[in-house]
Amino acid sequence: MTLWSRKNRWLALAFAVALSACGSSSPGQGGSSSTGGTPGTGGTPGTGGITTATGGAPGTGGITATGGTPGTGGISATGGTPGTGGVVGAGGAAGNSGGAGAPGNGGSAGTLTMFYLDVTGGRVMTASTIQPNAKVLVAKAGQGPDGVAVDVAGGHVYWTGMGNPSANDGFVMRSDLDGSNVTTLVPAGGTFTPKQMKLDVAGGKMYWSDREGMRVMRANLDGSSVEALVTTGMTDTDRMDESRWCVGVALDLAGGMIYWSQKGPSNGGVGTLRRAHLEIPAGQTSVNRTDIEVLFDKLPEPIDIDIDLGAGYIYWTDRADNTVSRAPIEIPAGSTAATRKDRQILVNGVATAIGVALDLPHNKVYYTSGANGPVGRCNLDGTQNESLIPMAGNLTGIALGAIP
Length: 404
Known about the structure:
mainly beta; Neuraminidase; 2 helices; 39% strand; globular
């Protein structure tokens, strides 16, 4: 045999050995490669896995490491799909520590944190929803802080201040998430008595109800271009009619709608929940617009509101009968706003029910008490009601944000 033939024969043999050692190997269970070429089980890629293994395929849900061993924790969902119409405000962020990738109200994954207002002390407060120990975020938030909203991505907490309710000196402020850089956005008198607020971060707008001003309002996030979207009265005589007083507010950005409450006198039985388009119809004004719908009438005294668009529910607090309630957004067939009977009381006995905010990914409703009651929480259907911070103070608004 020639030297060339012996060399070729040796190369062929080496190539065959290499094939038997590598080419016939199939992934083992969970994506690790087998030795000796016997196929394992589970070699098909699992749900959501990303293959980065050498010789292996991913296991179910995991990200495989070198050698095909599944990773832990799956794929994070930071910045998931917005909930509640993509609105940032009550919610403003995703759920606890990643929340299994569950989306929040427009924000990113992190530790779900409450931001709420102490109206007597004029303070912005904060506490984790996991270990709810109250901390002062802003010690001097102005007179009568009432509505609060959070923009986690932008790094800001916004709040309204009622000022003196008879003096037309309401304002809007914000700070960084750590309470620093407190800034006045809408100066005193730029709004009368601002109450609950919500943010449209993508659209660069903030929205609020103005109680004694008898308006639903909005402005740019920097406080410029303040405008009225709804005006329910204009004179001092009108102002004496508390059924004109706008208090709660919520947004359906995808549907182009704004929701609000008009409270009426204390336990007056004339409170209403309403909605209209975000944009005033062409040729009309905030005073004479004709697209306003009354969704619920004859309520004791509705205050703050929030909406679950996916399930089709509106939630609200009522300071007359001290409850947290919900009802379908749409009026049932055969009923009117005044005759409908589908209100569901979720929580009774709240010490002056004021603020409400939904955590939809975790099936929770948060609420505040305005008479030294607790910051509370229950399931969306009212079950598992619990006091998170007992005797928390004289509280107004509440919002949720997932802080990284």
